[in-house]
């Protein structure tokens, strides 16, 4: 996402697009702010990658130029001058968007070992071929991954090789060596019984999803207040003052019947004749803090989605207004309007965005200035001390109607949650 430069020059005009902003609230008395805390869903392992045994072989010191790529067994041996080491290559295909969390190399033994006789597994390079590798040209051992001993003949032997497997898969090469002073064999890729051939069992999990919440990305900590809208019916009366008044600038009406909570989101609906809704929070009234909402909207362009910090004093425009997410007749563009001073001067930002899809909109208001975020990325900033609101503010949510000469249609605003955080 490319951040659009913010206008740093005040717009010295009374913004006719909204008329007198105090009428935004009309008879409704908006109350405090409401906001929320960030949630990250943990990922769990569960999916299996596709693994293929591409080739295997063994090499022996006493026949240093011989190749054993067609053998039906793999051999390891720790006796001096008879050393035997085995090589295996797998191809691992990891599902898109996932990564390896566990990898186990398994081979079916043809020999038993005591508790002090081990077979070690190492990473190795891919510079070998099944029909060409010999003791003399075999790749050297790489990272030691583990050892297993004390196993019975006719059983599966397992090594944890997770740290030797690329999290995104690809070609994986392993080398087996032994300290045992005897021959230890395993079924190979050429075994007539395909069920007993070596295998690499890989488990994957979803990649960590990068959060798009500003609170998570910038470490704002736990929320101090909020509404997750995880109930049904009217908005919680202890948290919200739902407007019952004339609409913005006298257009249409704001009716409590046009806002409901459906168990997972707050939904405001606007009718073609301008019956719509708005509401203000009743708590967390404060000077400075951080607010974040997850919202989307759709419908007729005459309806504008608005998330606002409004002055508790109701003294508009002198005490300011921060519209940190607002549409103005186009559901493909989001706007930021920071109003300040009795002349209703403004700094602004505009960004192309599909507002019909849910996005996270946030504002960080501190003595250092006002910063706006979309999906965790900064897109607005005003650090001029002369532009600071003078007193506490609170959150409002509104679906405002701006009738024009086009045919009238319905509109909708949906909010998953609202969260407020302490000032940083």
Average residue-wise pLDDT: 88
User: What proportion of the residues is helical, as a percent range?
Assistant: under 10%
Q: Could you tell me the strand content as a percent range?
A: over 45%
Whole-angstrom Rg: 33 Å
Task: Spell out the helices and strands N to C.
Answer: EEEEEEEEEEEHEEEEEEEEEEEEEEEEEE
Instruction: Give the N-to-C terminal Cα separation.
Output: 25 Å
- The chain-level structural class is mainly beta
- Which parts are unreliable, with pLDDT below 50 for 5 consecutive residues or more? 1-47
Could you describe the largest sheet, including whether it forms a barrel?
9 strands, antiparallel
Number of helices: 1
Summarize the structure.
With 424 residues, this protein is mainly beta.
Notes on the structure:
With 424 residues, this protein is mostly beta strands. Helix content is 1%, strand content 46%. It contains one helix and 29 strands. It has one helix spanning 214-217; strands spanning 47-48, 50-60, 73-77, 84-93, 98-108, 118-124, 141-149, 156-160, 169-178, 183-187, 199-206, 225-227, 232-233, 240-242, 245-246, 253-254, 259-262, 266-270, 275-281, 289-299, 303-311, 321-326, 333-340, 345-352, 359-366, 369-374, 377-382, 393-401, 411-421. The strands form five sheets. Strands 12, 13, 17, 18, 20, 25, 26, 27 and 29 form a nine-stranded antiparallel sheet that branches. Strands 14, 15, 16, 19, 21, 22, 23, 24 and 28 form a nine-stranded mixed sheet that branches. A hairpin with a 3-residue loop joins strand 17 (259-262) and strand 18 (266-270). It starts with 46 loop residues before the first strand and ends with a strand. Residues 1-47 have low confidence and may be disordered.
């Amino acid at each position: 996402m490319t951040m659009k430069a913010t206008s740093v020059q005040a717009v010295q005009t009374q913004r006719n697009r909204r008329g007198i902003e105090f009428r935004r609230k009309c008879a409704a008395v908006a109350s405090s702010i409401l906001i929320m805390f960030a949630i990250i869903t943990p990922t769990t392992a569960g999916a299996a990658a596709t693994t293929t045994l591409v080739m295997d072989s063994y090499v022996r010191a006493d026949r240093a130029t011989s190749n054993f790529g067609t053998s039906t067994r793999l051999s390891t041996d720790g006796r001096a001058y008879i050393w035997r080491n085995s090589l295996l290559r797998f191809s691992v295909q990891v599902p898109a968007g996932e990564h390896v969390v566990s990898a186990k190399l398994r081979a079916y033994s043809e020999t038993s070992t005591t508790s002090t006789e081990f077979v070690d597994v190492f990473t190795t390079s891919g510079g070998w071929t099944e029909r060409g590798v010999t003791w003399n040209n075999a790749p050297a051992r790489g990272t030691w991954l583990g050892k297993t001993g004390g196993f019975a003949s006719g059983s599966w032997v397992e090594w944890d090789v997770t740290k030797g497997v690329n999290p995104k898969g690809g070609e994986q090469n392993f080398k087996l060596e032994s300290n045992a002073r005897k021959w230890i064999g395993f079924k190979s890729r050429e075994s007539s019984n395909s069920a007993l051939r070596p295998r690499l069992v890989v488990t994957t999990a979803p990649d960590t999803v990068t959060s798009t919440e500003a609170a998570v990305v910038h470490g704002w900590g736990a929320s101090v207040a909020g509404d997750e809208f995880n109930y049904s019916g009217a908005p919680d009366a202890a948290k919200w003052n739902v407007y019952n008044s004339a609409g913005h600038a006298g257009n249409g009406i704001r009716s409590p019947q046009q806002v409901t909570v459906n168990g997972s989101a707050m939904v405001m609906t606007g009718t073609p004749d301008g019956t719509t809704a708005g509401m203000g929070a009743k708590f967390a009234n404060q000077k400075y803090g951080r607010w974040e909402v997850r919202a989307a909207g759709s419908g007729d362009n005459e309806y504008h989605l608005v998330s606002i910090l409004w002055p508790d004093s109701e003294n508009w425009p002198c005490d300011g207004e921060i519209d940190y997410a607002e549409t103005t007749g186009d559901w493909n563009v989001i706007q930021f309007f920071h109003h300040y001073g009795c002349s209703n001067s403004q700094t602004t930002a505009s960004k192309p965005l599909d507002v019909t899809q849910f996005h996270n909109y946030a504002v960080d208001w501190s003595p250092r200035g006002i910063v706006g975020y979309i999906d965790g990325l900064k897109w607005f900033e005003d650090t001029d001390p002369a532009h600071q609101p003078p007193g506490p503010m609170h959150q409002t949510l509104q679906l405002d109607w701006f009738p024009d000469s086009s045919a009238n249609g319905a509109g909708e605003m949906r909010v998953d949650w609202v969260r407020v955080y302490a000032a940083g």
